[in-house]
Design the sequence.
């Protein structure tokens, strides 16, 4: 049986269109969930992805979560400010298998 219980929240962000949540699960997998507004996290997500790759960069202030999904790849980048650890910048890039990118 696959354990989808969250162990730790890694990213929680939103804008006027979407809510995105990335969790580390009890089974060590990383899960990406996305809701299109006006939905909230109390609704079922519109998209759920399980990752295959996390990239940690030498600067230690940058993480990338890579989620392949059919012909698409979702890359969520989290950059934590070195000056204030409480400040993070989140970027999402979606590219197709022909490397056309959408942010």
Sequence:
């Amino acid at each position: 049986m696959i354990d989808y219980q969250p162990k730790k929240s890694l990213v929680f962000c939103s804008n006027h269109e979407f809510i995105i949540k990335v969790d580390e699960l009890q089974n060590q997998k990383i899960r990406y969930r996305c809701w299109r507004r006006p939905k909230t996290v109390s609704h079922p997500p519109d998209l759920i992805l399980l990752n295959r790759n996390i990239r940690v960069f030498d600067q230690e202030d940058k993480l990338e979560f890579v989620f392949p999904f059919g012909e698409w790849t979702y890359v969520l980048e989290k950059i934590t400010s070195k000056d204030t650890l409480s400040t993070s910048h989140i970027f999402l890039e979606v590219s197709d298998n022909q490397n056309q990118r959408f942010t």
